[in-house]
Write a structure and sequence with these properties.
By secondary structure, the protein is mostly beta strands. Helix content is 4%, strand content 41%.
């Protein structure tokens, strides 16, 4: 492998990333630090296109699933690497009630709206600017979603800031404000494979979640209303646990999801930032990903619906269980479970959240 050049401070560069069907040009921004971490992000969808880190042998690999060109991202059905919103998740029948006002949302997934609709935040060309300092290289993305967008009320101003530092930390900050009461539930949807994006399944990955409870789902992949302890279940990741142990088991929840796709309710010490919210370790490469988040829940999703129909980077054909997502969000907590009221955004209460991904090898 080529020697990683020394960079005294994190830096950010920019290049063209192709033309959208609309005729607009997308850009690709590369953030890199002095330890071989390189993150490529497009202003189309705020998508993390590539993320290179060094393994325990000193070799660099791209550890997120994705595509080589913008055309594939326009056609992508899996939300690879994208910012998700206005609302991450499913809204049954696309029916939304806020303060006794009813809204019919556009439905883009059979009998529900999924991840914000047909042309949600993941399919928008965001306005971009950059910042650099001795400590960080940052990409700032801005998009205004108009009143009625995909059926949602309110003009909502969204900002997302990606920052990389020399401690191998990638921070994602989310900002949102509205002129009318609405809902927002934002997350980042990168699919990680710490052995390398083209390394096959993730069964040898070990996962740890700072959560004592999770939310069972019904056959339609909606929370049942039960808040269940993870102890002695297939959903117990309170210690580092090999994904392959139960991901193809006959556990009812695993069978429903075809893998993992539940809400875990984050412990208080993780929400406060005292400890991590989630961790993943891949033994062959020694790569470890630790995620910190201030959000009250997260979804562990294990690429259950990827089916080999899409050709990814380097002509890799991704299959089921070829990556995992850590998706922190605000829909659920240990007091109310999953409740859309938890996601309400009012004009006098702007939204802010931060997620931090820390990379190392051991």
């Amino acid at each position: 492998m080529p020697t990683v050049p020394y960079i005294s401070s994190p830096k950010i560069t920019q290049c063209d990333f192709g033309k959208l069907r609309s005729g607009e040009k997308a850009q690709l921004f590369t953030l890199e630090n002095s330890h071989g971490v390189q993150v490529k992000i497009s202003n189309y969808g705020g998508i993390i296109v590539a993320l290179e880190t060094v393994d325990k042998h000193g070799n660099s690999s791209d550890i997120v699933l994705g595509y080589d060109n913008i055309e594939s991202y326009e056609n992508d059905p899996y939300y690879l690497g994208a910012i998700i919103g206005r609302y991450a998740g499913r809204i049954d029948q696309g029916q939304l009630s806020i303060d006794d006002k009813y809204y019919q949302l556009e439905m883009n997934n059979s009998d529900n709206q999924l991840h914000g609709g047909f042309k949600a935040l993941n399919k928008q060309l965001w306005q971009a600017s950059t910042e650099s300092s001795d400590e960080n290289a940052s990409l700032l993305l801005h998009h205004t979603s108009p009143d009625g967008d995909n059926g949602f009320p309110g003009n909502v101003d969204f900002k997302v800031k990606y920052s990389l530092n020399n401690n191998n930390e990638l921070t994602v900050e989310y900002f949102a404000s509205t002129d009318k009461t609405t809902i927002i539930n934002l997350t980042q949807h990168s699919y990680f494979n710490l052995a390398g994006h083209n390394s096959g399944d993730i069964y040898q990955h070990q996962i740890q979640l700072s959560a004592e409870y999770f939310l069972p789902m019904n056959e339609r992949i909606y929370p049942t209303g039960e808040i269940r302890a993870v102890l002695k279940s297939a959903h117990d990741f309170s210690q580092l646990t090999v994904l392959g142990k139960n991901i193809n088991s006959d556990d009812e929840q695993v069978l429903i999801a075809k893998g993992y796709d539940n809400y875990w309710l984050t412990n208080d010490n993780a929400i406060s930032g005292e400890v991590f919210a989630a961790r993943a370790f891949e033994p062959s490469s020694g790569r470890e990903l630790t995620m910190y988040s201030d959000q009250p829940c997260l979804i562990l999703y294990t690429a259950n619906y990827i089916d080999g129909s899409q050709t990814g980077k380097e002509n890799c054909v991704y299959q089921k269980h070829s990556g995992f997502c850590f998706e922190p969000q605000r829909l659920a907590n240990r007091d109310t479970g999953a409740d859309i009221k938890n996601t309400i955004l009012r004009p006098d209460q702007p939204f802010y959240s931060q997620t931090r991904f820390v990379f190392k090898a051991r």
